[in-house]
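Hi F.,

I've been meaning to write this up properly since the lab meeting, where we talked about keeping a consistent format for the predictions we share between groups. The idea is simple: the sequence comes first, exactly as it goes in, then the structure tokens exactly as they come out, then a line or two of notes. No screenshots and no reformatting. I'm using this chain as the first example so we have something concrete to point to.
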Amino acid sequence: MIDSKYAEISDLSDARFVEINKAIEALNLKYNLPDHATLNKARFLDNPIINASGTFYGARMWEYPFAIINAELKEGMTCADIGCGSTPFTPYLASVTGQNTVTGFDNDFLENDNTHFAFGVRKEFIKDTGIQFKFSGMEKIDAQDNSFDRVFCISVLEHIDNPAIWQKGLKEMARILKPDGRLILTFDFALSNKYLSIGDVLNYTGLIPCNFINMNWPTDRFVKVESLSMDVFGLVLQKPSGTVYTDHSKMKSIPRERALTVYVPEVTYPHELQIAKDINRGKLLTVSKIVLNRYKK
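Output, unedited:
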């Protein structure tokens, strides 16, 4: 697995990332999906790997491999792709787990055109892939409780302006996830961003970290656009085993303190302290110089 963390340019040279991105690129071409090469050159100025290859959006060259590696997919696993759009990610999941194990969920179904890039599901895409897609917003996902081994939500949360929607969406993702299942999220995120914090995600899902959470802001930013003060973050959560919750409107039934340990290497913004407090049950953390040590519950 890979730590939950910010995207780093160096990750793209990882052999696992390279292999997955080649397969994703082939699917992007196979299904005649939008070419993001021009946008990539404008947004990822100093990233030769993205600029030299990749017709799909540059940030997904990190997000898709991060999600796939941490999912540890096996044949027969049921997968939900929330806010899926028309992207090569959903058919990639089906190529690993099976054609009938993957369901894409989106609240925007489009005619057969590429005007919206990856937003919305094109009818032609549904026909060509043979994958099951459901017209469903995240605030009420059309799926039964505890029905998916893996739930993915790739670059969706940052596009939702209404907090009530993503808050309900996070609860819904936890609801449809099987015990021991994993929820894998990627989103644009800044340590100083009060709109959404890691503590919020833990609170509204009630899930626990599946791996080490590293919130160190990367020295070499992945997205280099001066107007953006955030970067891509990947987070992997797990549903506690042996317990089935039917009423996810009362998320306190899954204690947030089950977020056992968190590592916050450097304090760059004051809001980072709040994030650390949120995750660590509201404890007042002691700061030695600018380093936060590892804390246990």
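Notes:
The longest helix spans residues 15-30.
DSSP finds nine helices and twelve strands in the chain.

If this format works for you, I'll send the rest the same way.

G.
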